[in-house]
Amino acid sequence: MRVIAVDGPAASGKGTLARRLAQHFGLAHLDTGLLYRAVGWQVRDDIGNSAAAVQAARAFDIDWLRIPELRGEAAGQAASKISAIPQVREALLEFQRSFCRQPLGAVLDGRDIGTVICPEAPAKLFVTASVEVRAGRRHRELQAREIPSIYAEVLQDLIERDARDSQRTAAPMKAADDALLLDTSGLDADQAFDAALSYISPRI
Ligand code: C5P
């Protein structure tokens, strides 16, 4: 099985890394955060309504992944709330597992790929960076996209999101026992890629 599981908190660099790894090894790539963002976006006006979120997750449609607003902060916040609901996670499980089973192999990035979605993956990374470094990256990225951003607010948002993701009972964010911990605080994208590559290459 040629599967690379890339987990870690928001703005750790895991998405960029996962895309590069997929390209390098010729594997399909799934950003699983987009699934939760798509479901959160569907119910954004009624975010406290768990039944509606579960219904939306069960009706999940791959076309939802093309909604441009999914990359924004509002969708991220909505995703972080509905992703704590066990039945939402359950409804999105099979889509992710079947993505792992593609004959050509796959890279999936998220929070629980190495622990829940694909525990048998031969190569697992848990990508981290200090919350200040991540907030700085996210802040600069938003500014580069000409989206108004205040560093202190981005930092607060990440702190809250980390707490929700790691403290929930349903598939909390955590490193698999057999994952490589990759702290990108002092690394640029190329250095993170090189470190990941030397770990993964002998494994897949
Ligand atoms: O990675 P991204 O920021 O797009 O994820 C948005 C939210 O979706 C996360 O804060 C997390 O709550 C949820 N998520 C999850 N499990 C995944 C991927 C994302 O719970 N595998």
From TrEMBL:
Q: Where in the cell is it found?
A: Cytoplasm
- Catalytic class of the enzyme: transferase
The coding gene here is cmk
Note the SUPFAM superfamilies from the entry: P-loop containing nucleoside triphosphate hydrolases (SSF52540)
* Segments forming domain Cytidylate kinase: 4-200
UniProt key word Metal-binding: no
The record's section on Pfam families has: Cytidylate_kin
Protein's UniProt name: Cytidylate kinase
The family assignment reads:
Belongs to the cytidylate kinase family. Type 1 subfamily.
Q: Which UniProt keywords apply?
A: ATP-binding, Cytoplasm, Kinase, Nucleotide-binding, Transferase
Native species: Lacibacterium aquatile
User: What EC number is given for this enzyme?
Assistant: 2.7.4.25
UniProt GO molecular function: kinase activity
Which reactions does this protein catalyse? CMP + ATP = CDP + ADP; dCMP + ATP = dCDP + ADP
In terms of HAMAP family, this protein maps to: Cytidyl_kinase_type1
Q: Which InterPro entries match?
A: Cytidylate_kin, Cytidylate_kinase_dom, P-loop_NTPase
| Amino acids binding ATP | G8, P9, A10, A11, S12, G13, K14, G15, T16
